[in-house]
Amino acid sequence: AMPAAVAPPDVSEACAALQAYLDRPAAIRPDIRGVAEDLLAELLGAPVVCEDPLPEGEDRREALEALFAEEAVAREDHAHAWQALKRLGGEAFKAGLIWPAEAAYSLALSEGGKAVPQIE
């Protein structure tokens, strides 16, 4: 078993700032509040460092090949291009820029490849 790691030596300013942020009267989005509370708890306590789930060996090699194989990387590239260009088209449309929105959507479809959902 690995020993627990400790937070950096002086995180008191960061902890005070996070606490002040959490204590302010203004509403904080629930997801942001949760992240801030988790970070504060981690800074105040000793973060847990887990053991490597895939130590050196055949399982690790297979996992790395599956993650970084040329096909997997290409699939992720297409998916990210699709998402970014579709979002860009949506923002252009909201701004009243119809032709740039159309161009971004068209590019999203062509760059997305097989990553584009069937309903699109």
Quick rundown:
This protein has 120 residues and is mostly helical.
Structure description:
With about 120 residues, the chain is mainly alpha-helical. The protein is about 65% helix and about 0% strand. It contains 5 helices and no strands. The mean pLDDT is about 85.
Overall 3D form: flat
Q: What is the beta-strand fraction? A: under 5%
Mean of the pLDDT scores? 85
Total DSSP helices: 5
Q: Percentage of helical residues? A: 55-70%
| Main beta sheet | none
Terminal residue distance:
49 Å
Low-confidence stretches: none
Q: How many individual β-strands?
A: 0
Helix and strand pattern: HHHHH
What is the rounded Rg?
Answer: 22 Å
Provide the descriptors you would attach to this structure in a database record.
flat, mainly alpha
SSE layout:
Layout: H1 12-23, H2 30-44, H3 58-68, H4 70-94, H5 98-112
Helix pairs in contact: 1-2, 4-5
